[in-house]
Design goal:
heterodimer; A: alpha/beta; six-stranded mixed sheet; four-stranded antiparallel sheet; 9 helices; 36% helix; globular; B: globular
């Protein structure tokens, strides 16, 4: 059974005078259990909309999305037990400490406070969050530390499918590397399937088993990074993911910075 | 035992909402202090109108009775509106913090979310109102010897249920209207304040406003509390209206939860869940 299967997915939004605009159109993909699958695209290409639909936070207009066989619309409850999402923005109660935020998150998943506190301490230690930060308000933590707390929150109730929506955006190179290592380690140790969106070409190339390139709400190419690069390599020199993007969209990376659908 | 697991999980999640709000209240203690001082001074200002009226109108007016009449109204309103605002602004608050998607993505039911938030609102509201009452008692010579405090407590409890339902229904507005939803809940609260006889008997209102007063649960709660405190009216006399208010409150909670679920679906279809105002 696929960890994630998406078939003919469509999502439209009403955008003022522009009327209805397509955020996603004809999306189809399958992610195997234990795979790290990346969706690569510029801002406004529909990546976050796609993740939100899988996370049951948006309803699709057409098509079907299943997580380990469960439909995200009709069986949203079951899907929510199998997933967790980490997004680019720090979605925390800013005045609460990392521990208070994690206790809240854990209890929503039915984990009692005592067990959650023990697990949180283990995760903070593994992620290298300084102990003196654990009781401080989130707003006093650096961006990298906040993102580590976000990752720790996702693993309090280990998900079978982890949705990472640009998890390293805005991080310094060292923090970015640490989060990437953690994703690889978690896949290795827990067998977690990872569905990752990014606009970082190097990140997609480095950690993803397979990649889909999303442009203006459509998947224009998908495959392993090596296969995609081989497809566009012409004179024997190794292509980059940027070359792949240019070849399949006809655009330079960064040309299309339209507004994200939601 | 297996059948109890989902229930246990929902209970843990309910506590999660209560504990979160306790933590937030502690962290925002400065705001709480400001808000407490504001509520206390407002209550005192209203209650002094009773003594002021006696001074202006002469001995024909019982200033102490009027003071207690106004104090009951302002304290009960402070309590009920607290419940209303905590619940009705839960969506706006989470949107502002940026956590709304995480809460809505968790596998706990919306009823648990609403009940957890309401539980905190009731406990917090009671604690806060008692503090204001204790502080106000230092300013006035309150005579509660003839009051039936048991009946008054029951009126307050049943009133909490009614206002929880109202709060849940009002919480739909910030969910559907990210930019103006909170202001809309203020309009609802202001209308309830006008028609519910907080500072005067509803009989002084024009006929059409008295019609609205009959639809407000606060009208019955405030009247019941005044009768219990000012006239010592016991539970025997109040049983029927209390039962009706209780059943109406439960119906309002169920109706509010149902409407909220429809609004949540609409928000998820149109992408309004996350958008901030």
């Amino acid at each position: 059974m696929d960890a994630l299967s998406i078939r003919d997915l469509e999502k439209r939004f009403v955008k003022g005078r522009r009327g209805e605009v397509y955020a996603l159109r004809g999306i189809g993909l399958r992610v195997a259990p234990g795979e790290i699958y990346g969706v690569l695209g510029p801002n406004g290409s529909g990546k976050s909309t796609l993740v939100r639909i899988v996370a049951t936070l948006l309803l699709p207009d057409a098509g079907e999305v299943r997580v380990f066989g469960h439909d995200v619309v009709r069986e949203a409850w079951k899907v929510r037990e199998l997933i967790h999402r980490v997004s680019a923005e720090a979605a925390f109660f800013k005045k609460l400490s990392p521990m208070e935020n994690l206790l809240y998150g854990a209890r929503l998943y039915g984990i009692p406070g005592r067990i959650a506190a023990r697990r949180a301490r283990e995760l903070f230690s593994r992620l290298g969050l300084p102990p003196d930060r654990i009781g401080k308000p989130m707003e006093q933590l650096s961006r990298g530390q906040q993102q580590k707390v976000a990752v720790a929150r996702a693993f309090l109730h280990p998900p079978r499918l982890l949705l990472l929506d640009e998890p390293t955006t805005g991080l310094d190179p060292r923090s970015k590397r640490e989060v990437q290592e953690l994703i690889l380690e978690l896949r290795e140790r827990e067998g977690t399937t990872v569905f990752l969106t990014t606009h970082d070409m190097e990140e997609a190339d480095r950690i993803c088993d397979r990649v889909a390139i999303l442009d203006e709400g459509r998947i224009v190419a998908q495959g392993t990074p090596a296969a995609l690069k081989a497809r566009v390599s012409c004179d024997g020199s190794e292509a980059t993911m940027e070359d792949v993007f240019f070849a399949v969209t006809g655009k330079e990376w960064g040309d299309d910075e339209g507004p994200e659908a939601t | 035992m297996r059948g109890l697991r989902p229930l246990r999980r929902e209970l843990i999640a309910t506590w999660g909402f209560v504990a979160r709000n306790v933590h937030l209240t502690k962290r925002y203690w400065g705001w709480e202090l400001v808000w407490f001082v504001y509520s206390l001074t407002s209550s005192l200002a209203v209650a002094y109108i009773g003594l002021g009226t006696e001074r202006l109108s002469g001995p024909g007016v019982d200033g102490n009775y009027l003071t207690l009449y106004l104090l009951v109204g302002t304290l009960v309103w402070s309590y009920l509106s607290q419940i209303f605002y905590v619940i009705s602004e839960m969506v706006a608050w989470e949107r502002w913090e940026g956590t709304i998607e995480y809460t809505f993505m968790a596998p706990s039911s919306r009823l648990t979310h609403l009940v957890g938030t309401s539980l905190f609102a009731v406990v917090y509201g009671i604690a806060r109102t008692l503090l204001i009452l204790a502080a106000a008692a230092l300013f006035f010579d309150l005579d509660l010897a003839g009051a039936d405090l048991g009946a008054a407590t029951l009126w307050l409890f049943v009133g909490s249920i009614s206002f929880t339902g109202f709060g849940i229904l009002a919480a739909v507005m910030p969910l559907l209207f990210p930019e103006r939803g909170v202001q809309m809940t203020n309009v609802v609260a202001a209308l309830l304040l006008l028609v519910s006889g907080v500072y005067y008997p509803v009989e002084v209102l024009p006929g059409w406003l008295q019609f609205l007063a009959r639809a407000s649960p606060a009208t019955y709660v405030i009247r019941g509390l005044r009768e219990a405190i000012l006239e010592g009216r016991g539970l025997g006399d109040a049983a029927r209206p209390l039962v009706l208010l209780f059943l109406g409150g439960l119906a309002m909670i169920l109706f509010g939860t149902w409407v909220f679920s429809l609004a949540e679906r609409y928000a998820k279809r149109t992408g309004r869940l996350k958008r901030s105002g």
